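INTERNAL AUDIT FORM
Audit reference: QA-55
Scope: verify that the stored structure record matches its stored sequence.
Auditor: D.O.
Record contents follow.
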Amino acid sequence: MQFPDYRPRRMRRTETLRRMIRETRLTPDRFVYPLFVVPGKDVAREIPSMPGQYNWSVEKAIDAAVQARDVGVPAVILFGVPEHKDAVGSEAWDSGGVIQKAIRGIKKAAPDLVVIADACFCEYTDHGHCGVLRDGELVNDDSLENLGRAVISYARAGVDMVAPSGMLDGFVGATREALDEEGFENISIMAYSAKYASAYYGPFRDAVDSAPKQGDRKSYQMDPANAREAMREVTLDISEGADIVMVKPALAYLDIIRMVADEVDLPVAAYNVSGEYALLRAAAQNDWIDYDRTMLETLTAIRRAGAEIILTYHAVEAARLLNR
């Protein structure tokens, strides 16, 4: 048999050769570590559907953030669970809320760590929707007013970046306007630009008790069948002042990540969400996969698709492996 002159296996013979020509490099610098902050003291409560992830009280969340920093993870994103929920989610903008306390504590303990606050209301409302509900419908513009109150509260606490995640019309512009009017023009915005109405969010909703009490979020989150619509959403967010655009979830939407990365000149983030994390954990607990290898392969795929920033619950353990 006549072989061609070029034999691809030549450059796969050793790990050193493979490393020399590796196209996609995964580093801890790409990661953002999500933390769930809850009321109380000395709370470190494992989330049943997310083994290895916890609801943290403020002081424990500060410790977890410092540990992430120490293994090279440059940023954390904070999700809060309030003491009390109400119809409008008013604890989201309470200066004494758990997120505000965590921001202040983390910036004191680790000033070089980038602290991001997720800005949404599903965790804070007693109905589980991402804003003001009237006659069973989410009221878009009233919800934007409350979003402004929340992001200003986070900015006053010392946050570096806010991440409005409700997928409401005009949510990025309302965030930018609110911050700028209060003199926080240096606070950046990571927009949940293409956030799909996904079944992969289930474990997250367990973690923060945010499942809607009635209806669903399909009227404001994207239809999983749509791709071109993602670019419309991303383009709108850029025009309204987003500094980073995000695709969520990641694994079932690698094509969307690639499309967005090819079309925009802003950093692209992808959220490796709770359901994606839980799938790997469950398979590993049954000895069906090599967890470490599968985790790194998964994160590499997200990076290869074009994500420059990866929000992932694997951040700390992946960083430790990459640092070896």
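Auditor finding: record pair retrieved intact. The domain at 24-322 is CATH 3.20.20.70 (TIM Barrel).
Action required: none
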